[in-house]
Amino acid sequence: MSTDPAADLPFFYGSISRSEAEKHLKMAGMSEGLFLLRQCLRSLGGYVLSLVCNTEFHHYCIEKQLNGTYCLSGGRPHCGPAELCEFYSKDPDGLACALRKPCLRSADTPIRQGVFDSLRENMLREYVRQTWNLEGEAMEQAIISQAPQLEKLIATTAHEKMTWYHGKIPRKEGERRLYLGAQPDGKFLVRDRDESGTLALSVIYGKTVYHYQIIQDKSGKYFMPEGSKFDTIWQLVEYLKMKPDGLLTVLKEPCVNRQATAYPPSVPATRTTRTNGYTPPPRVDHSLLPMDCDGFNPYHDPNDLKKFYIQRDQLLIDEVELGSGNFGSVKKGVYMANEGQKDVAIKVLKNDNENMVKEEMMREAEIMYQLSHPFIVRMLGLCKSECLMLVMEMAAAGPLHKFLSANKETVSVENIVTLLHQVSMGMKYLEENHFVHRDLAARNVLLVNQQFAKISDFGLSKALGADDSYYKAKSAGKWPLKWYAPECLYYRKFSSKSDVWSFGVTMWEAFSYGGKPYKKIKGTEVLEFIKSGNRMECPAACPERMYALMLQCWTYEHEKRPDFKSVEESMRTYYYSISNKATSDVAVELIK
Fold first, then answer.
1. Which of 439, 457, 467, 499 is catalytic?
2. Are 64 and 43 in contact (CB under 8 A)?
3. Is there a catalytic annotation at residue 352?
């Protein structure tokens, strides 16, 4: 799983040194404006632009900013490395010359992985496993949905996986280990200095061990006295292998820690243990990652999974009403499960409506019971008592459109992209399992909190047969016309492709902060509006790439419309390219 937004660029070489970059440019002819992109060793997530101008080499550091944009020092911000290179191909804007010709990798030159790249996937899985007690599909969904944030978190402890890291040992013990065996210049190790948590670099030169304090500034950057600054310890060490940067020698041979224990690396202190047996990570903002919520992985007791029916005495029903409709109401409640109490939402059927909608509610329960995905509201069971009750996970922050409308000042565009990516993951799961939702809309996306969305309301959903690609309704009903694709309204045909159309409308609602789609057009007139080639305009806050995806979702011919596999990939690519500022803030806080 590569999350590097430059991975698809044919002129990106990965983790190569300055001298190697210059060698590639020489071999490519040294023409004016020839350039390549490589990984930056100093800045986590950053790059270096290597350029030829007047037969000389120029190297420009591209840093990833706190808001997820990329820019050269003093330059304009860009949403990704590709966009940045495209801009400088038209306007040098401070470079020695404009980018004119990319130095393309040859077929036998793969992107070189960096030190952290080769460890990333295993470290991600181990971190998620030990921190959130997730396995299997839940783990994979957690990693995909939060990869940029997770990578930032584990990068700060990645040095603990390196052979040269010796943990908390005294200065004398560090010297003893370095003197064991051969003692070439540049033999080194990194150790914890004392209780303060600071680190030291110990290096042999001329048969003598020298000790250097690794300093950390207020922003979390690491550096040697008067040296360059780095986001992580392992980046600092890799740089010192190429340049002494104030040391007596470059780092060469690592002093291997023979007493090292296997990963996982230590998680920073101040953790508290939950009653269900696992410990959450320290959080600056407890709503930052969905995995911090119990609702991400609610089934810790496998016996609960076997229960379709819930006993009435296991439920406490509050008078607080979360919503209502023709079927009845949704109330707040508590489910007393084997492992403890869970806050739940209870869909209560009105007695006077029972004969009319009982069958529909039972069908919804049967569909929901088959679904198990972090970004889909889970059904915990049915209760037959004074009336029929559907017991579901609680999503306390309510419907997406109402939340966005009420919190326009505090919800960023990046936040909306995060939530919509989660919805696309849930819809991709439905598509893979041959379920058609038929009522996807912002009102049916419920929020656990500002960073965690779940798809709900499966009253119109249908399970398709293994050989069926669509469901055809026998007759039209009370349908949400403004969310439906043309084939639904013309032919009553519903498929994952028609859900994709609805996802486009849901995107529009979200980026409009809860706006009403086709506001000035009646539902019955929407089809003619669409048939004439018209589409809703781009919301003011919506990024161009997200509106382009909306338009793809609104492709008239369903055969040409993307599926959710493609939609989720597009959402993911854009989501990974815009790192939320909170991610960097938390990473800095964790390493203070």
1. 439
2. yes
3. no
